[in-house]
Amino acid sequence: MTDQTKIVSKVLVLDTNTSCLEAIKGFCDSNGLVGLKVQPGNVMAVLRSNLDLGAILLSEMYADNGDCGIQLARKIHTLRSELPIFLRREGIDGLDGIDELDRPLISAAYTVESITKLRAVMDEFIFSRSYPNALLRGITEISIPALESQFKSINVDVEAPYLVRDRLIFGEIFTLIPLESSWCRGYMMLQTEEASLIQLVENGRTFVDPADAHEFRHLNGLLGEITNLIWGAIKNRYLSSVRGETYLSQVPIIVNNSHRYISFGSENPQLCFKYIISDRDDATVRPLVIQQKFIFNLSWSPEDFSENVTSADELVSSGELEFF
Amino acid sequence: MAQILVVDDSSTVRNEVGDFLQKNGFTVAMAIDGRDGLVKLKADPAIKLVVCDVNMPNMDGLTMAEKVRSELNNSTVSIVMLTTENSPVMKERGKAAGIKGWIVKPFKGDAVLPSFKKLVGI
């Protein structure tokens, strides 16, 4: 079981210098970062795919399809402007020599000798928020039973929570539900792939009739009910009533289907959990991956976080009938 | 003619609860929200028990329960809420509307079957 209170973030490492890669790996290991390497020539394809990234560590000497250093940074920025780029330079610990117009592309520049200074930069761009440990633990404590209640004969695995800055939509189906309380306001989003869900329905692992496996509305409904179960339990446990404010702000949520992109209007990283649901009896079924993202874009005051207290007398187990 | 009306906007829940009840010998009708629930209940006087979600579009379950008593003047049908909600305030509102009980989702059929039989009168 992974530590559900240790948050990590994935960074794309675009660097081929072997000795520098060792230093970068050491930095990542000791700072909650998971470094992902890409073969030159594949960078843009990887960035277009769904990797849940927090940042990019780019070497000024790294070349990809003829683009090198700043040229590559420009292309990356055009494609994924939400991802901060940290540029490793040879001997110049800063942006000296880089055109004024290109400097905004780079969130920070470093040398391998000064790599430790990235710690503060990572805190600014990725680990900018602290999340209550009880909340991090509680989310999976709530979500796993909810998943187990909707799928039969399956195993649920969950990875360590992670932070992403990208806004790509994973899979074909996603749900959104508001989270409103005195200490946070935002959304929970569940995203998944339709093909894997169809397989589990066809295998009779859900309450959807296998004959309806290709009726997308039933798949929507299944993910909707999972969302409802998780949301309800989170609300009961963590979300106290909203402040007595008469005005509660809202911002538009923008979806661009052609880019599989969703924006909540906030630059803050999203808190993510990845659940992997495997058919216990049929190893040929591709595991279903559900990504759960929390976007506290409207308000975030973790200092006011608290669990809702329920007395033992009031406590009735889920699924049991409480008579009035 | 049904004994139990299941009211939930989620087809997954309607399938899950409906299949379980039918396998256990009940006749079941379905409604997709509170408004539909009122229509189905009015049309079928044989219904003895309503199993109803709270959060639904068009008309929520608590409003439906209140209207069962106030608009349909049906004081005999038993209403049980099946919901993710667990707030005392909502339960108080449900009590005031005359509901018989409250189940926090997920649905666990075996845990409620004896009570449902009793409420339906079999």
Structure write-up:
- The complex is a heterodimer of chains A (324) and B (122).
- Chain A folds into 2 domains: 4-125, 3-Layer(aba) Sandwich (Rossmann fold); 131-304, Chemotaxis protein chec.
- Chain A is 27% helix and 27% strand.
- Chain A contains 7 helices and 16 strands.
- Chain A has helices spanning 18-29, 43-48, 70-79, 118-125, 133-150, 194-202, 216-238; strands spanning 8-14, 33-37, 53-59, 63-64, 67-68, 85-88, 108-110, 154-158, 162-164, 173-180, 184-192, 254-256, 261-263, 270-279, 288-300, 321-323.
- In chain A, the strands form 3 sheets. In chain A, strands 1, 2, 3, 6, 7, 8, 9, 10, 11, 14 and 15 form an 11-stranded mixed sheet that branches. Chain A has a two-stranded antiparallel ribbon with strand order 4-5. Chain A has a two-stranded antiparallel sheet with strand order 12-13.
- Chain B is α/β, with parallel strands linked by helices and 122 residues long.
- In chain B, strands 2-1-3-4-5 form a 5-stranded parallel sheet, sandwiched between helices.
- β16 of chain A pairs antiparallel with β5 of chain B.
Largest interface: A-B, 32 and 31 residues
CATH class of the largest domain in chain A: Alpha Beta
- Counting DSSP H or I runs of 4 or more residues, the number of helices of chain A is 7
Lateral arrangement of strands in the main beta sheet of chain B? 2-1-3-4-5
Shape of chain B: globular
Q: How much strand of chain B? A: 15-25%
What's the order of the H and E elements of chain B? EHEHEHEHEH
**Unreliable stretches covering 5 or more consecutive residues of chain B:** none
Let me know the average pLDDT of chain A.
90
Q: What's the rounded overall pLDDT mean of chain B?
A: 95
N/C terminus separation of chain B: 16 Å
DSSP summary, beta strand count of chain B:
5
Computed structural class of chain A:
alpha/beta
Low-confidence stretches of chain A: none
Name the helix and strand elements of chain A from N-terminus to C-terminus, one letter apiece: EHEHEEEHEEHHEEEEHHEEEEE
How much of the residues of chain A is beta strand, in percent? 25-35%
What's the helical proportion of residues of chain A?
Answer: 25-40%
- The oligomeric status of these chains comes to heterodimer
Separation of termini of chain A? 40 Å
Total number of beta strands of chain A: 16
Assign an overall shape of chain A: globular
